[in-house]
Write a structure and sequence with these properties.
single chain, alpha+beta, Thrombin, subunit H, 11-stranded antiparallel sheet, 8-stranded mixed sheet
Length: about 675
Amino acid sequence: MTSLHILARSCAIIALAAMAAAPAAAEEGMWTFDAFPTKAMRDSYGWAPDQSWLDHVRKSAVRLTGGCSASFVSGAGLILTNHHCVASCLFDNSSAEADLLDKGFIAARREDEKSCPGQQAEIVTAIADVTGTVQGAYKGMTGEALTRARDAAIAKIEADGCPDRKTMRCQVVTLFGGGQYKLYTYRKYSDVRLVWAPEDRAATFGGDPDNFNFPRYSLDASFLRAYENGKPVVPSDHLTWNPRPPKKDELTFVVGNPGSTARLWTQSQFAFEREVRLPITVAVLSELRGRLIAAMETSPERQREGLDMLNGIENSLKVYIGRTKALNDPDFTGRLAKAEADLRQRSGGNAAIGDPWADVSAAVQAYRPLYLPYRFITPSSDLYGYAEALVMAAKEKAKPNEERLPGYTDSALPLLEKQILDKRPLYPWLEKLQLSWSLSKAREYLGVDDADTQLLLGKESPEQLAERLVSQTRLADPDYRRQLWEGGLQAIEASKDPLIQYALKLEPRQRALKRQVDENYQGPLTAAGGKLAEARFAAYGNALYPDATFTLRISYGQVKGWTERGRPVPYATTMGGTFDRATGSAPFDLPTAFAANRKAIDPATTYDFVTTNDIIGGNSGSPVIDRSGAVIGAAFDGNIHSLGGNYGYDPALNRTVVVSTDAVQEALEKLYPAPALVAELKAR
C-alpha cells in the first residue's frame, strides 16, 4: 500500500556477453510456459521436459502478491518461499513482547498459523493470446486515445474472462512492449497464513555486506499455507520435497515470477535512465536511509519497527547503484548500442516497421519535463497510500468498468479491497518520517515557487504537514477504512479526515499529469513497442522471450560455480561454514539457534548453492527443481554479476543463489524443530 516504490533486485553492474535483441544464449531466458524452447534445450542438454512435466510444475507454482514467488510442496496447501518474502508478515504479527522477526515462528498446530495481511496466493490455470483484440482496439490511434482504448479493451477481456471474482483473477499482460498481449487466468487464495520461519539472524546472516555475494550462509526459507473457507487448500498439483544436496553440473529449473527487466529498451530510454531517473532515485533513497537510521537509533522499539523498511531500502540502493555503474560503463553501453544497431540494420528495408526508435526517442524527450512533477505529486507513506487508494477507488467505481483507470477495474478491485481492509500495525513516527521526507524532496526538486509544490504544501513545512496529517487521521483503523470503502464516493466526500481531504485535493492534478504522460509518453511508447516487436520477430524469428512482467516464467540451467579474478568460486557452501564465517559482531554474529545447537548440526549439510539459471527480482522464493520434478531449493538472491540481469545475461558469470532443501530439513529437525511440518513434507 505504500507509495515508496522500493523495487526488487533488478539492476545492471557489468558488461554482458549477450544482449536480448539477438537470439538467446544456451541458458539465457525467462521463458513463458506457452513458449518453452524445447528444441533449444534439447540441443544443449540432450533432454528437455515434456508437456506433462511442464504442466505439473506450472500448476505447482505460486505467485505471492506481495512481490515474491513460491510453490506448493504438500497436498494440504503448504507453500515454500523465502524468509524475506514473509518478513512483512512476521513484522505485522509482531509486538514489543513477541518479536517474531527476531525470534522466528513455529506453528505447533494449524490453529496457531498466523494470517498474513495483504497477501494472496495465485496459480496460473490458463494463458491465452489476446493480441489481436487489444491491438485492434487501438489501431490507428496514438497518445491518450490509444491508452484509453487499450485499457478499455483489457478491462473487458479481464471481466469477461473471470466472471467469478471470488476465486479467479484475470490479468492481461503486455509483452514485447505492446507487441503481444496475453490473458493470464489465476486461481486465487486470499487467506494466506504463516507456518514456519527461522529467526531473522539466520535468514539474513551476513547482512548487506553479503547481499548479492557468494559464498553465502543464509537460511532464507519459510513456509506459508493457503486456506479457503477456513480449511487448508488441496492443490491439484504440488512439488515433491527432496532434502538432498545438489550435484555439480546437474540440470536445474527455476519456476517463478520475475518482476521486470529492461532488455528490450532503446538507447534513448537508457540515456534517460542514466541521466535523470537513477541519479534522483539514488539521492532520495540515500537520504531516506539516513533519516531512518537516525530515528531508529533513538529507541529499541523504533529499531524493531523500522527494520523491515531499512532492509528494503538498503537492498534497493545496492540495486540502483549497480545500475548506475552499468550505464556509465562505456564498454557496457557500447554493447547495448551494438545490439540496437544490429536490429536497425536488419530492419532497414522493412517499410512497414518504419523508425520506431525515433518514435521512442521523441516520447522520452517529451517525458523529460513531465518526470519530476509526475514523480513527486504523489507523497509517500502507508497512510497516504490508503487515502489515495480510497479516493481513487470511490471515483473510479462510479464509472463503467471499461472507462476506469488500470488498478481499479473489476478484475483488480478484490485484491485492492483486501490490501486496504486487512488489519496491520502502523507506526506514527514512521509514517511522519516517510511523509515529511517525500514532501521535502518534492520541494527540493520542483522548487519552492512551483505550483505543484504549493499544492502539496500550502503554507506548511513538510514536517508540519506530516505531523498534522498523521496525528489527526483515522485511517490507521481498518474499521474506518471499511466504512469509507463501503460508503463509496458519498462517504469519501463527506469525510473530514485530513488525509482523505488531502488526497481529494491532489487527485485532480494527479489525473491531469497522468493524461499528459499518456498522451506524450505511454501512448507513443505502446505504438512504437508494437513496431519494435515486429522488427525483432522479423530479424530473429519467434524464439525470443519477452521482458519480465511479474508473471510466470521458467528458466533452465545447471549447478555450477564460476571463476572470479582467476579464483574458482565453489558451487556450494555447508552449514558448518557458518561458524567459520562468524565474527561475533553484526551482521556476522551467530544466530541464537546455531550457537545453542552447534554440536547437533551436521557441518557437511549443503547450505546454499549457485546455478546458471536466468532470474531477476520477483523470482525470490521460486522453487529450484531437478530433472525429476522435485524441489531441491528456493532461489533467494543472485551473485554480484547477476545484477546485470536487468539488461542481459552472461552465462560465464551470472548465478542464482539458492538455499538448499538439505539445509531447510536440517533446520526443521535440529534448529527450529517442527515435527509436524517434517512429517507433512515427507508425505507424498
